[in-house]
């Protein structure tokens, strides 16, 4: 069968799965998720054996140690995957929730009800645990998934999908609730992106190049996560000890993440007190600091920052520092350079806190908290399928609710259009 | 200037406009909308003079009378446009609304706040009133618009936009809140669809061909409105008099609209009583009826329906009739043929009503009310920019709320990521 027909067939299977899932009760979905978790544990050996094939292939290909580590399945990781499925089972079901309801003058009652989106196509890279995570979140929200993982993990992914599908079938759901396109060819992705009317949403997870390629070629709506160039602004009215802790946490706690701080903006009124202490603490933690001219005057030992640095997502122990002339200047810098991901202000001034919250146009805006908290678990969504930097449907962490849409429902008693 | 640079320049102007609008207060937005309404009335002669150019061109080109009628601006229509702006001014401002808010165990408060989307590109066809309608709705929701109207109305649209921009400038907003691409060339649309990162959302309004072309070529998210193939299912437990009124209204009140009924599904248990009466009433109103074999047995005078007819959006006094074996059969038919726009059940059976509401996957699902009520005004949204048949962001009528998104806001007191 050619690639086009193969992908089309898989997608139609996913559509059948979506129909079954849309009607499934919460109880049924939860029970299947728990059985899936048990099956992953029970069949761990099988998964590890298949995973070994991927690892061998990666080693032969000379892939980096870091990549091979991300690819590797261990008993511990399989256990975490299973635990993840159980946690999703324990979350409240968003489907069927009436978001609001109101009366019209003609006596009809109009409401908005949460409904599944349908078939969600997920295109992702190496880590095989994404297979179970993404499938379980979509399933709980009543959506089937059409998965397309990276070629490096193809054996592992195929094995995980087999386990999950076996359970779906055995428990009386449809196998099509989880379908997997096991063709490493890039053309398979391109065919997937043309399945308008069958696939309802595409979520690409991976590097910027993958996401750009998907966005440019998709006829299906895409929810995506571009880079995070995040800021913390230390206002003149900040509690400087708190500011120090927040900035340190935002940069150092896990620098390789999208919600880590890349640029620290410091109010000029407190720069002379704040900067030397802060820079010392960063330097002790191995952070390379690049500063504007003003900050270099205060702490001459730091490097010089270039304008293009302010656009960079370092994902590393590197930090830009800029001294700004108050909140206006800080918000202008953020509006220009931020990737609209996570931005924070540290201040004790009420008016400035409220202004920053309202005016900064990012997926999450923080007062007196670390940007590292922009995360589905931290926000209490239970789990997340990514952090959207899009401007429609959902911005920020996408949990179960964000994997649904709403439809209008009308309770009438004979209302007509006049 | 070449088309690409021209469109890019206009879009950047819109982006500047969006920044100003995002910060504007409700009071300021409302005052500008009211001044815009007044200016349209005051400068009606200017608008009508420009409109005459379009009409003359359309007549020379031999366009249809119906099209020329839709194109024509009269004092009455300008008055309606102005009235529309005032109504939008009177609606509640969605921007800044806190949709929900909750506490986390670490003491931080997380909320979701409604924010504008940014720059909305609207691609539409002949009717010039869309220019003012769409611009006012977007503006009220804090978004700037990049408009691209049909070439037939170019002089009228340019004149309307000029009036609105003059007011925006005079009242201290930015002219860029409303920008207009007055290049009739199709290439201008194609350039618009590439402005990812500047334009945040595209809404195409017009025929299916336009919408398909936009969807296939856009790198920007698109919210669209495909055809309406709507159903009314008359259940065996329906109040048959109510069913008759609802079916008649759904088909006849305005057959050329997307929410008019195209197929009537009748439970076989009541078909012999219901069909003859209903068909007579439809025939008296000039409706051509195409029925399945079973319905032809009951009313032999009707035409025979073909399977492909069930996919058709007639937009005319033509109706398919099918006799079904209960709600299961009806919902199966709807799942197969419906365009997921508006579908209704008429029944007095509680369980069937609730099942239909839950399981039918359409933008609006009705119990005991006409599908013709799927409309922003009828639902109380105040106004609408179209009816989305998409599965993400918004389904059904899109009012002000649907022209916004939400961001996360966090009130902390020093929270860090552990």
Explain what the structure shows.
Two copies of one chain form a homodimer. In chain A, the strands form four sheets. A seven-stranded parallel beta sheet of chain A has the order 10-9-11-8-7-12-13. Chain A has a four-stranded parallel beta sheet with strand order 5-4-3-6, sandwiched between helices. By secondary structure, chain A is an alpha/beta fold. The model of chain A has no long low-confidence stretch (mean pLDDT 96). In chain A, α5 (75-90) runs parallel beside α6 and α10 packs across α11. The first copy, chain A, is built from 14 helices and 16 strands. Chain A folds into two domains: 3-223 and 398-409, Aldehyde Dehydrogenase, Chain A, domain 1 (3-Layer(aba) Sandwich), CATH 3.40.605; 230-373, Aldehyde Dehydrogenase, Chain A, domain 2. In chain A, β9, α12 and β10 (303-304) form a beta-alpha-beta unit. Chain A has helices at residues 3-23, 26-42, 44-60, 65-71, 75-90, 129-140, 154-170, 186-192, 208-217, 240-252, 268-284, 293-298, 326-337, 350-359; strands at residues 98-103, 109-116, 119-124, 144-148, 178-180, 201-205, 230-234, 261-267, 288-291, 303-304, 318-324, 342-346, 364-369, 387-388, 396-397, 404-415. At the A-B interface, α1, β2, α10, α14 and β13 of A face α1, β2, α10, α14 and β13 of B.
């Amino acid at each position: 069968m050619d690639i086009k027909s193969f992908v089309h067939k898989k997608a139609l299977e996913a559509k059948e799965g979506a129909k079954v899932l849309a009607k499934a009760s919460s109880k049924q979905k939860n029970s299947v998720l728990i059985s899936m978790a048990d099956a992953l544990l029970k069949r761990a050996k099988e998964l590890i054996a298949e995973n070994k094939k991927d690892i061998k292939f990666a080693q032969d290909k000379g892939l980096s140690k870091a990549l091979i580590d991300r690819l590797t399945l261990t008993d511990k990781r399989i256990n975490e995957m299973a635990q993840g499925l159980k946690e999703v089972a324990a979350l409240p079901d968003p489907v069927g929730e009436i978001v609001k309801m109101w009366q019209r003058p003609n006596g009809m009652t109009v409401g908005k009800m949460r409904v599944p989106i349908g078939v969600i196509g997920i295109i992702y890279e190496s880590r095989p645990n994404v297979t179970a995570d993404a499938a379980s979140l979509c399933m709980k929200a009543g959506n089937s998934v059409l998965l397309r993982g990276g070629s490096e993990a193809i054996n592992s992914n195929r094995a995980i999908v087999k386990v999950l599908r076996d359970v779906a079938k055995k428990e009386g759901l449809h196998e099509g609730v989880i379908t997997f396109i096991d063709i490493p060819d890039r053309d398979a992705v391109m065919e997937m992106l043309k399945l308008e009317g069958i696939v309802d949403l595409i979520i690409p997870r991976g590097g910027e190049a993958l996401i750009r390629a998907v966005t440019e070629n998709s006829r299906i709506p895409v929810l995506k996560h571009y880079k995070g160039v995040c800021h913390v602004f230390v206002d003149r009215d900040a509690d400087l000890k708190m500011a120090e802790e927040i900035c340190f946490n935002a940069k150092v706690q896990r620098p390789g993440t999208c919600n880590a701080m890349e640029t620290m903006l410091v109010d000029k009124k407190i720069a002379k007190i704040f900067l030397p202490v802060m820079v010392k603490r960063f330097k002790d933690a191995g952070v390379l600091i690049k500063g504007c001219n003003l900050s270099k005057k205060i702490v001459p030992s730091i490097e010089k920052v270039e304008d293009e640095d302010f656009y960079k997502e370092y994902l590393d122990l590197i930090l830009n520092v800029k001294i700004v002339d108050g909140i206006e200047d800080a918000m202008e810098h953020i509006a220009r350079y931020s990737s609209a991901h996570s931005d924070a202000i540290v201040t004790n001034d009420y008016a400035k806190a409220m202004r920053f919250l309202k005016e900064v146009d990012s997926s999450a805006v923080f007062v007196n908290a670390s940007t590292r908290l922009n995360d589905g678990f931290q926000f209490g969504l239970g789990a997340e399928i990514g952090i959207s930097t899009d401007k429609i449907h959902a911005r920020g962490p996408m949990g179960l609710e964000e994997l649904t849409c709403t439809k209008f429902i009308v309770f009438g008693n004979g209302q007509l259009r006049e």
